[in-house]
Batch of 2 targets.
Target 1
Amino acid sequence: MNIREEIVNKIRQIPESRLPELYKVVEELVEKKPKEGLLKRLQKIKIDGPPDFAENFDLYANGEKSLDDFYQSRDEK
């Protein structure tokens, strides 16, 4: 017996008065989209920064390099 048949057999045991409650649960499961994983969400993040940002992230993070310089030179073009 597969899982669908097992579910149907369990549903047949539910009293008629509780079926509307079950229907609401089933509707939520059918309509609910699966959650997107963390890596998929992280892939959507777009960062606008200098070409060397990843390579020199630590320098930008502690202020040795400035993002302001990058944005000013970019905006002047």
Target 2
Amino acid sequence: MEEERDKGKMFEEGFKEWFKDNVGEEWSKDMKCKKSNRNKMYKTGAGTGAGVYCLGFIGALVYYIGVSTSFWVGVLGILKSIVWPAFVVHGILKFLGL
């Protein structure tokens, strides 16, 4: 047990020397939590599109199922709710006359 502690201390001292030689600073326990700029994660807005699509899908699903008059019209409503962005783009392009 005593031998393992000595090995641990020797490793820690060796690491501190290596750190000082390669980084140029003294090692401290506070530095363990310090993060460099290269490890930062940057968030983009990519996840927002999926959230909007899901909310739109649920809204379209509720609408199309609510106005369905038969089983097959309800099935068609489910399929329409999956591709609702195509209907939105078509409506915008039709409105703009393009």
